[in-house]
From TrEMBL:
Provenance organism: Thalassovita litoralis
Top-rank lineage group of the source organism: Bacteria
Protein name according to UniProt: dTDP-4-amino-4,6-dideoxygalactose transaminase
Gene3D superfamilies recorded: Aspartate Aminotransferase, domain 1, Type I PLP-dependent aspartate aminotransferase-like (Major domain)
Keyword annotations: Pyridoxal phosphate
Amino acid sequence: MTAKKTHLRVPFADLHRQYLSIKPEIDAAISKTIETSAFIRGPEVDAFENAFAKAIGPDHCVSCANGTDAIYIAMKMLGVRPNDQVIVPAMSWISTSETVSQAGADVVFCDIDPVTNTLDPAKLEACITERTVGIIPVHLYGHPADMGRIIEIADKNSLWVIEDCAQAHLSEFKGSKVGTFGIAATFSFYPGKNLGAMGDAGAIVTKSRDLAEGMAKFARHGGLRKGDHEIEGINSRLDGLQAAILNVKLPHLEDWTAKRAELAEKYTQKLAHLDALTCPTTAEDARHVWHLYVVRTKDRDGLAEHLKAHNVQTSINYPKALPFLPCYARLGHRPEDFPNAYALQNEGLALPIFPEMTDAELDHVCTSIEKFFRA
Ligand SMILES: *Cc1c(COP(=O)(O)O)cnc(C)c1O
């Protein structure tokens, strides 16, 4: 039998393959949690908080229910209030901006750099007013934001920085891991993230003991001991099953990240010669962790359709930059306000990339893309 290349289906991601690669460990961790009924808090949650703090760098890790809550909890404990302004990049997942509104503040969008797709420091100062209290840079797609210049501007203006690291576990800027620059950094372990649970999960890391304690309290009904509600909080906990799964997966993260980088390099080798396509690049001194491999082309929708016809699943992250979403229509933003975010929304296409992806699958994606541009 000869292999029928045209019948190869390339999924955008394949979580089941990852599960199969570590099935005995995962199954044992899940059974153990069930056998011991350690569903809320418990040894797995404590162990994960310790291991994750060690993996990223800051001393403290506060786990919570998801990456969105993580941003909200951090902002609440930094004292964000009505009438405050918080600056976020114009291209991100909605969590980055909706939490600003949930915390009671006003969101201010800043355009992105057209090469790194992260908050553009050159446009940051123009966004600062006397009402600004903080900045939330996002390490989009796994590429670190320019934390050198962002921290410099934040310090000069006495603003806090919360790093949104939801897509950037183990990413580095100038040799330091993302998550070590701001006063706090938030992570998501949504199943499809570089480190994913089997449900929702999130965490915040911080160098500040006081902030960590405040955030842990807030996430657990305002008190760390039963019946002891020092403040009003919310219920946002990492559950024992998810922690047990994350404890199995965390030791694999470095290898999985290296695999993503290998795939990204192969993509670029095979696609860089196409004039009508722009491959993503990595800034000098940056470690890109390739949550997404996002190419750009003028006929993005045509390419996506063509790839779908060739059984290649792609994704648009995101079809509308934040300022152009219906929920922000009240702000009256126009494309020319955020030209780089607007171009990315129209030209960006994320190709399949996941650690278990095979060379045959990557070849099929690249051959299909070449066919599109040759036609
Ligand atoms: C996924 C994501 C989040 C939110 O994480 P959840 O765990 O899904 O709540 C926040 N910010 C960015 C940039 C993300 O990609």
